[in-house]
Specification:
This is CoA pyrophosphatase. The chain is built from 4 helices and 11 strands. By secondary structure, the chain is an alpha+beta fold. The strands form 3 sheets. Strands 1, 2, 5, 6, 7 and 8 form a 6-stranded mixed beta sheet that branches. A hairpin with a 4-residue loop joins strand 7 and strand 8.
Length: 194
């Protein structure tokens, strides 16, 4: 049986291209400069559980949504990986020294104008999350088997700004994982099924 590390390394060698919030037929705006960002898909090295956050309900952007720890690349960040590690430390208290970065997947274009690079990683040793007050309402984990099974994802849609917008969802218990987070995780699951 393959280890979690071997499985994720196989996913990194997969051939799926970049993904986008516009994957379901709506046209992406042309000539828009995308801002670089990095998100950390951090799996527990022992049991494979993925760390996710529920954003604070009081936030101006994406309140209450489920997200991978991460954010935009700041001037002091070397690259998207550095941004993802910094943000994970700020948002959930994950010590970068305990994180083994395995590699990156192609960037995901968000409707909010980011080129969001997923950074696959393993967390070694016990981790007790410390949610960033005012930004993170809750930190929770999702089993590896749920994240990495493409059958757990389906497409839903709604009217947004006068047009229908479709997106992936992968609910887990009380958590409604959708949008860019679900799309990135679906890309990972697709790579594992190929």
């Amino acid at each position: 049986m393959a280890t979690i590390r071997q499985t994720l390394m196989r996913a990194l060698s997969g051939t799926t291209g970049p993904s986008s919030d516009y994957d379901f037929g709506s046209a992406a705006p042309q000539g828009v400069a995308l801002r670089p960002a990095g998100v950390l898909a951090a799996f527990d090295a022992a049991d494979g559980r993925l760390i996710l956050t529920k954003r604070a309900s009081s936030l101006r952007h994406h309140p209450g949504q489920i997200a991978l720890p991460g954010g935009k690349v700041d001037p002091g960040d070397a690259d998207e990986t550095a941004a993802a590690l910094r943000e994970a430390h700020e948002e959930v208290g994950l010590d970068p020294a305990r994180v083994e970065v395995l590699g990156t997947m192609p960037a995901h274009r968000t409707i909010t104008g980011f080129a969001m690079t997923p950074v696959l990683a393993l967390v070694h040793g016990p981790f007790t999350p410390i949610p960033e007050a005012g930004e993170v309402e809750e930190v929770f984990t999702v089993p590896f088997a749920h994240v990495c099974d493409a059958a757990n994802y389906h497409v839903e849609g709604r009217i947004w700004r006068g047009a229908r917008r479709d997106y992936y969802v992968a609910p887990w218990g009380p958590y409604y994982i959708w949008g860019a987070t679900a799309r990135v995780l679906h890309s990972l699951a697709t790579r594992l099924c190929a």
